[in-house]
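Worked example 3 (structure in, sequence out).
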């Protein structure tokens, strides 16, 4: 019996020590073997009365490595009463949670995914993971940028194997599990931070499915402290737009040696037009604050300067719109990048402040329009 092509491709990625580690975690014993080209393991099963022996190739460069490994997988599948694909998953992903993201072709003629779309999609999901981790450390409705804890978490994740015969992304989040301490003791365990991040994402998927079924974005908004933040909603809606009609599903496969909470055992969602509208509405709500009744004093450093017209001594140049971006921390601790339009003379002062690293202060009402914050009805600009 031979494996399907997709399974054979996966078997080529499995190392002998991975399978040996799997058997040891399951209580099997390694025995001496007369041929150092192989490893011998013995084990018992509640499903089979007699002891079972497994002989594994010790190196991947043997001609029959994949065939012998396949025989072992089939035997273990019967031994543990598991699908062969589940045995492979428990061998390769026992210590990591995995987000699987298959992407459907746009039409029957699409055989390959455009490179720029693949690159942008991976970048977006990296930010999605990073915002999930940053939100877990300090839950808020939205953030102006990804914090260090989020970036560090994303840097520790991996891009896994894609799917044979289909476009797809696999993001693997390692868990700090010690194979020598498996199985885990039957006592409450401290939840590893990577698992908490993945459960936040799972909660968001559940909320999204419920919000779509009830046509109610407020379900996501009300649950932002344990599910999606405004940034996470925004990223998923951006990804839907990028897909340009391609189907995109998302599912979580949990580390086999650290089972999830019951409500998260089977988690998946699909980005559709309806879910896109739900996510967009939730994002707008989460990233909007009530219009202030009084002016706010905006203080911070200038991070950007932008003029649409080159510096020529013309009336058009004198009247052109100029914008600065000020990094402002609100009373709640949320940091916003506030866009402020300035007349020519004030803009020149802002350029000097930016060049010299000086803070500026300006008074007005911050309002969100689209994805950006603007200061309206502002006055009293000064360098401090």
């Amino acid at each position: 019996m031979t494996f399907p092509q997709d399974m054979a491709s996966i078997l080529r990625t499995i190392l002998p020590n991975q399978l040996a580690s799997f058997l040891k975690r399951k209580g099997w014993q390694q025995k001496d073997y007369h041929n150092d080209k192989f490893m011998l393991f013995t084990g018992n099963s509640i499903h089979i009365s007699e002891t079972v022996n497994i002989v594994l190739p010790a190196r991947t460069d043997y001609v029959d490595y994949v065939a012998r490994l396949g025989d072992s997988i089939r035997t273990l599948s019967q031994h543990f009463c598991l699908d062969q694909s589940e045995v492979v998953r428990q061998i390769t992903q026992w210590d990591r949670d995995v987000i699987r993201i298959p992407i459907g072709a746009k039409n029957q003629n699409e055989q390959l995914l455009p490179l720029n779309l693949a690159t942008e999609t991976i970048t977006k999901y990296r930010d999605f993971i990073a915002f999930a981790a940053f939100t877990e450390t300090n839950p808020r409705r939205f953030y102006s940028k990804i914090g260090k804890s989020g970036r560090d978490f994303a840097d520790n994740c991996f891009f896994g194997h894609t799917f044979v015969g289909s476009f797809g992304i696999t993001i693997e989040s390692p868990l700090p599990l010690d194979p020598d301490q498996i199985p885990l003791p039957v006592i409450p365990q401290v939840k590893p931070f990577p698992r908490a991040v993945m459960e936040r994402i799972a909660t968001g998927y559940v909320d999204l499915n419920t919000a779509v079924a009830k046509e109610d974005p407020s379900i996501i908004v009300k649950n932002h402290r344990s599910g999606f933040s405004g940034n996470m909603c925004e990223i998923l809606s951006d990804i839907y737009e990028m897909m340009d009609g391609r189907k995109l599903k998302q599912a979580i496969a949990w580390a086999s040696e650290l089972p999830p909470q019951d409500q998260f055992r089977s988690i998946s969602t699909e980005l559709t037009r309806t879910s896109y509208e739900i996510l967009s509405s939730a994002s707008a709500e989460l990233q909007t604050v009530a219009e202030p009744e009084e002016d706010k004093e905006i203080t911070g450093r200038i991070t950007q300067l932008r003029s649409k017209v080159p510096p020529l001594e013309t009336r058009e140049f004198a009247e052109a719109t100029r914008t600065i971006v000020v990094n402002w921390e609100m009373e709640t601790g949320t940091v916003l990048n506030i866009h402020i339009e300035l007349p020519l003379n004030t803009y020149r002062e802002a350029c000097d402040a930016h060049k010299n690293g000086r803070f500026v202060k300006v008074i007005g009402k911050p309002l969100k329009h689209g994805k950006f914050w603007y200061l309206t009805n502002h006055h009293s600009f000064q360098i401090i």
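Notes: The chain is about 40% helix and 25% strand. The CA atoms of residues 75 and 95 lie 23 Å apart.
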